[in-house]
Structure formats: C-alpha cells, structure tokens
Amino acid sequence: MTVREERPARTGAPSRSGLSEAEARRRLAERGPAPPPQTSRSYRSIVTANVFTVFNLILLVFGVLTLLFADWRDALFLGVLVANSAIGITQEVRAKRALDRLAALVRPAARVVRDGQPKSAHVDELVVGDLVRLAPGDQVVADGTLVAANALLVDEAILSGESEPVPRRAGEDVRSGTFAVEGTGAYEVTAVGPESYAVRIAGEARTFRHPRSPLERALNRLLVSLVVVMVPLGLLLGVSLWERRTHASEAIPTSVAAVVSLIPEGLILLASVTYAVAALRMARRGALVQQLNAVESLASVDLLCLDKTGTLTENALRVVEVVGDDGDLGRFAASSPVHNDTLGAIAAAAPAETVEPEHAVPFSSRWRWSGLRLDGRDLVLGAPELFDLGPLAKRAGAEAASGRRVVAFGTSPVPLDRIDAAAGPPPRFPASAIVVIAERLRPEARTTVEYFRREGVSLKVLSGDRPETVAAIARDAGIPVTEPLDGRRLPQEPRALARAVEKASVVGRISPADKRRVVEALAADGHYVAMIGDGVNDVPALKASRLAIAQGGGTQMAKSVADLVLVRGDFAAIPAMVREGRQILRNLQRVARLFVTKSAFAAFLILAAGLTPAAYPLLPRHLTLAAALTIGIPAFFLALAPSHGVFRTPNFLRAVSAFSVPAGTAAGLGVVSSYWFALYTLDLPVIEARTVATTALIAIGLYFVLVLEASGRLRGAVVSTLVLALAAGYVLVLLWPVSRDFFALVVPTPAMLATAAGASVLVLTALWIADPRFAPGRAHVDPGP
Questions:
Q1: What DSSP line would sit under 611-628, residue for residue?
Q2: What whole-number distance in Å separates Cα of residue 167 and Cα of residue 174?
Q3: Which of 283, 419, 481, 783 could form a disulfide with 98 if both were Cys (CB 3.0 to 4.6 A apart)?
C-alpha cells in the first residue's frame, strides 16, 4: 500500500450538465453533415494500387512504342491492362462499400452529456462544446480539453508512437484517435470532423500495426526476382537487335513480345481481387475485414491466443450467490461511474438506487479492484486474494476451484483518496461478502475448439481470472489442460517465457503487458500468432500479434486495432474464415505458377530465338491471346474456386520454381521446335509457322492448367470442362475470319496441326520422364523445402 500525504483535489464526475439538445441540434445544423465512415482503403488508394504500378508503367511504355512504330494490333495487351485494372478497381470498390456499411455497425460512439443526462451518440453527432465522458476502452472521438480526470491513463501511440499509456489530468488536452486505457474522465469538445484527428482514426490505427501476410511477402520476393531476371534479358535482346540493325517495325514487336511476356501482369491484381472478394464474403458472415489480407493470414495461423470471457464464454454473467453481508453491494454496482460485465451482473441481481459517489477509484486490470465512497463509507470490490476473507476463504477457494468466478466485497481501512493504487498493492481489505458469478460456455465453443485442434492449431487461453477458473472453462471447451500458469510468476527472459507457455494451454492472473510478452515470445519462437480479444487489457497483445481479431461487442480500442472484427461476436464464424483463407492461399499458390511459367517461357524464348537472325516465333498479339486462354481466364475462375489439399508451402519461391522453370522450358522447346520445323523443314510462310507455334503454346498451356488444377473427381471434371471450353474458344478464333486476321493467324492444315501436336507431345513426354508429377492424371505435389 502507498499512502499519499496530501489530499488531492477532488476529481469526481463533472458537475456541468453539457449542452442542451436544442443547442446541439443548432450547432450540428450549422456544421453540416459529417463524412461517412470509411474502411482502411480510400477510393484514391484503390485506384492507385490497381493502376500506378511498375509493371503497368513498363506495359504502357511498350504499348505507346507499339502504337507509334508498329502494328496497333500488337498493342492489344494495353486493353488487357485496362480491363485488369478496371476489374480490380470494381471488385475492391464493391468490397469497400460492403465493408463501409458493416463498419457503421462498429464505428466509435461517445457518451455525451445533454441536458444533464448521459446518452450514446455517434461521432458525426458531436458538436463543439459537447461534454463527453470517458471510461476504460473508450475512444477519444474528438479533440477536447479534460474537465475531469480520475486516475485517467490515455494510449496515445497513434500520435506519439509511445506504447506506454500516459496519465492525463483535468485541464490537459486530449486528441481524437487516442484511447482511455484506465480510469475515468470527461472532456469538452473543441474540434470535430475534418478539423480534428478523427478523420484519420481508422487509417492510422490500423496502419500503426500491420504485418504483411506470408503470401504477400512471398509475392513481393517473387516480383523482385523476376525484375532481376528481366533487366539483363531485356538488355541482351536490345543489344542483339541493335547489332543486327533490325528495323523498328520488326524490332519493337520482337521486344514487346519478349519483355511483356516476362511480366506477370495479372498476378498481383489477382491477389488483390481475391482478397477483396473474400472480404465481401466475410462481410456477409458478419465479419468486418479491416485489412484485406486478414482472411489469407488466418490460413497461416498455427497458434491462437484468446481471452476467456466473450470468446469461450458468453459476455453475459449472472450472480449465482452472495455469501456474507452484502451491505451496500447493490448501491456500489449501480453507482459505479464505470460499468463492466461483473458490475452489470451484480446490479441486475441486486437492484438499487444510483447515487453520486463522493470519490471513486476506477477498476484497473493492473490493481484488480475498484472503490467508491458512498455516504462516507469506503467500499471496495475486487479479486478475493486482495482481501482478508476470514471465514469466507474456504468457500471462495471451493467456488474458484469449481470454475466459478469469485469477487470479494468489503471496506477499506484507509480512505480511498489516500491510496495510490497505481504505485503498489493495496492493503488487505476486510471482506464482508463474496459474490459467486457464473459464466456460460458458448454453445459453439466445443465445436470450434475441436476444429482448431483437428487442423493442428494450438490454443492458449490468456485471462486475468484465477488460473483454476480459467482451466475449468478451458477443459469444458475441450482444450487439453496441463498445469495452468499463474501470470504473476511468468519468466522474464523471452526464451524461458516461450518454453513455459509452449507447455501450458492456460495462463491465469495475467496482466495486459504480460499478455503482450507472451504473444511476442511465441512469435519469436517461430509461431504465426493470432489473438482474439475484446477488452482494453487485450489491446497490447492484439497489437503484438500477427493477426488481431476483435469481438464486435468489445471496446472501441480493441476494434480499432484489429485486422478482423467479428461484428456479431460469433466465435464459431472463425473456422469458416480459416477455410476461406486456406482456399485462397492454396489457389493463389497454384495459379501463381501459371504466371511464372509464362515468365520462364519468355526467358527461354529470348535466349533460344530472340538472339538469332530468324523472325521471332510469336507476335505480341499471339502471346496476349495465349496468355488470356491459358492463364488469365483460368486464373480468375480457379482462384476463388473450392479446393482442398496442401495450403502452406514450406518455400514459396522454391515450390513455384520447381514447377514453373521446367514447365516454361518445356513450353519454350515446344514452341521453338514446332516453329523452326514449320519454317525450315516444311518451308511454310512466317504467318503459318507462327500459327503452328501459337497452337503448340496454347495446347501446352492448357495441359499445365489440367496438371495444376484437376485434382479430385468433381474439381477435375469442372477444370476439364473449362479447358475444353477455352480450347474451343481458340478454334473459334481460327475459324472466324475477323479474329483470324486480327491475330495474324491462318486456318491450320493437317500438316500444321500434326507439327504442333507432335512438338507438344514430344516435350511433354520428356517432361513426364524427367518429373513424374507432370504425368497425366497426377495432381501437382509441392516439393519439400
């Protein structure tokens, strides 16, 4: 116990009555409507991400050169560029609008005082001069000046970057975007809307902590690798064309055909669109995806930390029994300026008149008690180990061991205003009663826990309640429990902490700072950690996790820092999201190999044919047609299709290369051999030889779609039908004079078809012999690390 020598100035609730409703409406009318709530991405950022990319710039430059110096039909890839960008923008805008509507359900609210009475109001309803009350977890939704503060700690990390909350006193300013972590207060609004930090709350809060997902990091490494390959190959081709004094009308189409094929222009777009569509699906399930990669990140989670209350158990509590002399227990619960689930349950069980406390010590997860002075009596409610329980000790221990929550009620022997709870442990209060409170296990908790265990995801329950209580609930939910850990005795060294928590599935009596330390230690130990929470005490751990999930009924602070908000608070919705994420990860990893196969094919073609004096085997329009039929269209269908199998590749670049390099080389050999055979052996004109090469490329490309995607009877049938439809589309291009002339193709003769088929079968057979995974009827299997 720490006792202050001087009595501080009174910092209770403000005596002001706030604005009147009429005055507030007048000021609101003068200010005009506030901008609607937004998700993390603005329309501008969506357009920028889909249009202004390095690869789009390269494609634009080559497109302009083609239009100026070559046949305009070879600039067809510009249309694909525009179409891809338009599709990406449309899908993301559609997802954004759905998320904006969902965000309105969880947008910050304030407890504003109007006509002397507190009421809930949304941010856009506040005006300058309003009096707003703060409680733990509340977001400061407008700039203002504190008129009252009671042990108030404010998280200002968004503004200052400091992770530790800072104390704020009456007369000091608070800024929108910050959060009340502990204590209570009230502030007078000085700036709202665009004039304050409120317009940047969502973006800054989520930008403050946002690790990239595994697939995003892998794709970034892949793109950097392709750029490293593209630059020297492009220079080599350019020097070769220059040395041969190739005319611009031939040099530019050759350069375009070679370099543009190296660019996986649709890969990043496909990932972005897939994330947007997944977010839209999640919105329909009642989940607000505040970061588009959150659903994919769920697939990579191998360890899930969760709070007990609100996740495994229902938020609503009920008082089972009050043992002892409850005295003013009902008045204490009704008069407390800050309400939580425990006080709500007590108030419902013991209705009483609300009175203005003479002094208040708000509840904090650090000191685990709260106090009120009512009619000169200093009453306290808190964790039973802080009290001298006397004859109530045996009953309290028995109830806690059975899994019930127990809090003690009594009086303080020291005046509350002389206790500095933040400076040290309080005195052992004499207890007059204990309150036995029951939690109800969520109906879906067992099924959800069983799903995670079956999928190999470890579960750790981190709670401020007694270890025995937490362990009992965890066992009821189906979580294997060994010896629960006491959070007050956790190792300080990170590696020792990780080893201790690895062995335990339950940690009780854990502080918010130690929750964060546990998450950080597990992440440093190699785990991909997700955290589910709803309270202020969960926020440090949410920020430290790789994926933060907040309950929709939780505090504003928890929802603001989360990547994913369960608007309806449905823990059972997470398995469906995990399946969605794994489907996305599995599909994108597969279709990425089609895009990189094209790049490997282009590199081979530059080295094998681009450096020779012969005409280049393919025009840009041929490559655009082949890419659309064998990569673009299948990828957009298959990236969102149901799938099963391996969802986590040990080494993404190695796995992609293991497929794409041999596949691209085989496609290059098939195209070059068929082209040269038609050109030199059959002595066909260039246009006919290029028809043979294009036919061979499309046949080989469609086969690779089957190898990658036709796994399982139903999926195999669907993919085979898609491949046949795409092959039929190519036949129609050849048969329709307008499309045939546009793409500079001819109707193939039997000799031309035999040449294309023979080259395709020859190179694919060689590929099957070299690597049995490419054989017909074999779904592609990822190699080990």
A1: TSSSPPS--HHHHHHHHI
A2: 11
A3: 283
432: amino acid identity, one letter: S
Residue 589 CB burial class (10 angstroms; 0-12, 13-18, ≥19): buried
Does an H or E element contain 765, and which? helix 750-770
Q: Which two tokens stand for residue 421?
A: 């709870």
Q: Return the residue matching tokens 């005795």.
A: 489
Distances from the Cα of 190 to the Cαs of 29, 120, 187, 375, 745, in angstroms?
A: 17, 19, 9, 35, 71
Tokens for 552, please give them: 């929709």
Nearest-10 Cα torsion for 101, 104, 105, 108: 160
Site of tokens 């009953």: 395
DSSP classification of residue 317: E
Q: What is the mean pLDDT of each run of 10 residues along the chain (785 residues)?
A: 36 59 87 62 76 76 78 74 74 69 67 88 86 86 88 74 75 85 88 66 44 73 78 76 70 72 75 77 79 77 86 80 87 85 87 88 81 91 90 88 84 86 75 87 86 90 85 88 88 91 90 90 91 82 88 76 80 82 81 88 83 81 88 83 68 84 93 93 93 95 87 79 94 94 93 94 90 69 41
Q: How far is CA 560 from the centre of its chain?
A: 13
Q: How many Å apart are CA 291 and CA 517, to the nearest integer?
A: 24
As a whole number of angstroms, the distance between CA 140 and CA 123 comes to 10
Residue type, 58: I
Threshold 0.70, pTM exceeds:
no
Length of the chain measured in residues: 785
* β-sheet bridge partners, residue 144: 174, 189
* CA nearest neighbour of 342 among 396, 387, 406: 406
Query: Phi/psi at 266 (nearest 5 deg)?
Result: -95, -5
- Of the residues 143, 307, 514, 782, which is catalytic? 307
Q: Is 771 a catalytic residue?
A: no
